[in-house]
Amino acid sequence: MSDVSTARGGTAAGAPAERRGAPLFRNAYALMLNTGISAVLGLGFWLVAARYYTDDAVGQGSAAIAAMKFLAGLTALTLTGAMARFIPVSGAATGRLVLRTYAVSACAVAVAALVFVETLDFWGPSYRFLHGPLNGLGFIGAVVAWSLLTLQDGVLTGLRSAFWVPVGNTAFSAVKLLLLVAIAASLPTSGVFVSWVAAITVSVLPLGWLVFRRLVPRHVELTAHTARPPGYRQMGRFLAGDCTGSLFALAVVYLVPVIVASQISSADNAYFYITATIGGTVELLAINMGASLTVEGAHDPGRLGRNARAALVRMVTIVLPICAFLFVCAPYVLQVFGAGYARHATALLRWLVAAALLRVVIELYFAVLRAQSRTAGLALLQGALCVLVLGSTPVLLGPLGLAGVGIAEVASLSVIAAVAAVKLFGVLRSPGPQRVSQRTS
Question: Which secondary-structure segment (H or E) carries 243?
Fold first, then answer.
């Protein structure tokens, strides 16, 4: 039976509550499974890197990965919200929507990567190994490939096929780990970055075939009678707010590591990046549940309040114990990577764990705003968060060291979480249908 058969007017009469809410949690649990698998294999990657490569090599590799993620996200991450919002209702136009989104993203990030390569001297010594025509072209290709991988996850989520996200990312994570060891001797400086980039194809190519040959046609068939393809004006209003807000969010997540890498030594950047990866993995649990809530809010607006309450309960149930464990055991977790990591980054990890708890409230409210197409308010909050984080991080990094980055994030998120909590309260307490607003504010 189609999961979208009741997208227009709420749930089917008499359907059990558990079954009515099942798509939300199938998508969400698949994404959380992906986060867990990626976390284990990802941390394994950095653990092996810390053992097989010098601290400077790990710092340079992580700096290049941070730059790649930032540049790819300039369009890829700004468009994933649109994929979650519009794929569920695009019907027969879904394939064209996905293909055009891929093309626009690839062209835009290639230009951005070219500008970055031409200004490498500005970004500090951690990016020195990217100099040269061959290395520069390789970096541009890596940015394009990563943008497609990022968009692919959003497309699979929008197609209610998030099951394939952990499959693709598990293959990617496993291959990059194997390559990391295999090329350690031949590429002692760039091996961390090269192994990461070379593994992208094992996810992008087979899942790209699956999306266009299997999942999109199935989605079109299932939504043939319920699709409401968006017009250019509707999409334009959504993108004007969501893309702007996503650029702000991108700066918080990916520009901060680039800024930090440009101001500290390569060894210190290794301590920072691996610790930030651990903290960011916990935040992804909340972000993924929010993405699933956006998809279900687009499919079934009448259950937005109920789904939001259920999502909040599951977010807290999953995230809180993990945060408590990491806060208490922070030095022991980091000690696995080496004594320097525990000595220099324990305080940072504890601050980032506190930030992850604040993300639960923020991401839940952001998901509600996307489902309601209220993206102007979303952009305003994300812009405020961006200004707070980017303004406070450089100020606190100098006198407080790496811990200053975590303090800056917690202080900034606290302000936005307070606003989000007040706004979210009305949605959570609503027992009835939530009207889908077509306004942008």
Answer: helix 232-250
